[in-house]
Amino acid sequence: MKKLFILLFIFLEANNFCEAGIEVSNISVARSRLEHQVFFSGSIGSNFESSFRDVSIKLVVLDRDLKVLKESDPVILPYIYVNSKKDFNINIKGCPYFEVYDLKINYSDKKGKKEIIFHGSDLFNPPQQDGEKKDEAVITILSQYIDENGYLKCIVRNSGESDAGDLTLNIKFLNVERKLMKEKDVLLEDGKIGKGKTKTYNIKINNLPDYTSYQVLIKYSVLKEEKVLVDSFQAKDKQYDFGDIEYGSFTAGEEVEVAKCRFLKKPGSLEVKARIRNGKMLSIRDVTVYYSLLTGKNNEALLKTYKFNESIYSKAEKEFNIVYEGEIMPSNYKYEVKYEEFIPEKKETTFDRER
């Protein structure tokens, strides 16, 4: 009786993935569901003025939640000469069903031992190098799938050295003729992901169509530091009342402002509640408010600081509060705001997936 093989075979043609002279190309993946085997092949070479030695290549297969299912034995290549290539083949037997994988490559060059990782979020798109450009945000979708309850689960990593903002997911559902059935744009939570962070998002898809495939496009801004800026303000001398009376209002100017201040009297303390507004066209981060209450005949300054842990996007407002200990009757207040501006550089990554 002949054995029946059912193979999913993907050949990622004309895709070269490079890092510091290491080049990986001609990647193909074949998965046998009945025999529970994986066949992975490719070419690795040196495209730089350097040779590599002690090259070890390992395939790690993961489930959709990034749990390691199985690892291959390493393929060892003692030496790769300058401007040369070597083919490699990896086989994993008894491998459970998987959709996500990491190709880990360890090697040595003149500077010592190194490791690079190519991450495949599915079997239909080329793997992405993890953290290829370390001087900016590098967004990778590590895994994405739609569960039985109609939620798109998306695991995203920023392996770069800068924060990313305006993180938006565009989802398109296609029929068998590749025609658009439904499209949805989703801002992922507060739209940001910090450098080196991994986040999991669960997005409800209402009225999910009977689709054949879907595309996921992730858009984001690379937030690059420009300079540290300071905005300041001092109120006029007056008697301030306690309670829900708000002092100060925002202008329409392109500046960072603190306004809508309220002074709430509590036993043995005074709480100041206020709002900050970013009137600029760019996002700001590392925002610190230096808030001073002036009291008494000599206008003694009581300084407190409040630091925001998150960025504040253009035209956005955020509330903060500061508590001063003691019996305080403010006659004046002033503030300074220190922050960094960002120059947004739009990026996007597309993933196309069959159902």
Overview of this structure, please?
Strands 5, 6, 7, 9, 10 and 11 form a six-stranded antiparallel beta sheet that branches. The chain is elongated. The protein contains no helices and 23 strands. By secondary structure, the chain is mostly beta strands. A hairpin with a 2-residue loop joins strand 2 and strand 3. Among the domains are: 130 residues, Immunoglobulins (Immunoglobulin-like), CATH 2.60.40; 115 residues, Immunoglobulin-like.
Short description:
With 355 residues, the chain is mostly beta strands. Helix content is 0%, strand content 62%. It has strands spanning 7-12, 17-19, 22-32, 37-46, 52-62, 68-71, 75-80, 85-93, 100-109, 112-120, 128-129, 139-146, 151-158, 164-174, 180-187, 198-204, 213-234, 256-266, 269-278, 284-295, 300-307, 317-325, 330-354.
